[in-house]
Amino acid sequence: MTELSVILSTYNPDSKRLNQTLNGLRAQTLPIDAWELKIIDNNSDTDFSGQIDISWHPNSCIIGEPRQGLTYARLKGFITSDSGTIVMVDDDNILAADYLEQVLKIFKHRPKLGAIGGKSLPLFEAEPPGWLGAFYSNLALRDLGEHMLIEEWNNNYPACAPIGAGMAIRKTALTTYIGKILSGQSGVSDRIGSSLSSGGDNDIVIEILKSGWDVGYFPELELKHIIPAQRMQAGYLARLVNNTNKSWVQLLQSHGINPWPQIPVWGVRPRKIKAWFTCKAWKSKPNYITWRGACGLYDGLANS
Cβ atoms within 10 A of the Cβ of 156, count? Predict the structure, then answer.
């Protein structure tokens, strides 16, 4: 039995970025016999196995998951994992060389931690617009500084909670979450195909916290998140922020921690019109993106 499992979920991957991710894994300082690599193919349209090389890893495999959706892909990885520690890696993440080694070290010395994460720094494929920084969190980019942060469950979502990219999880902390997904009780619609809905990683974190585990941020855990030019376009970001805000409200509502009052369906349109003027959506791309985010929040509150 290995000490750690890397779960790499992918759907119609870009072969260049996926190979960058694999190269980052190949450079890990953790001895290769201490970890396994499971690539979960989430019903991709074409077979990408010939475009990547995993022959360097003696305990690696590609596993198909026919049910479309990131939640199901991750679940497949969790269930088939043979290790006590799991690290989730997206197909556009490049882990620092000591990432896996640091994960095991942190878990070893802090037995109450259920899930941890660290820095997710940008690797832009094109020059980013000057206003992009306001939307870093929506692009799964994060740097909370150089100090460790740890939180327990306090009936709200902690700011230091790990994001999906690079999230390391103690497998015993996943029991409740796995049971919920298998029983079909999840109220979260995570990424399905090309959709931009989200919240699956947040759902995992909340279930871990509710089970009595702590979560934490550790700056020594660092990865590069590849950001292609298309993801920096205003149209894409507007759709992303809109979908993310709607999913966020629905996630909080499903866990009974939504801080905002629900609104009637008929009240959505006038709120969106008012927000158009409040955000001055016509003035700039960031303003328009912010307005679309407000619209997503209202849609979530009307349907939660």
Answer: 13
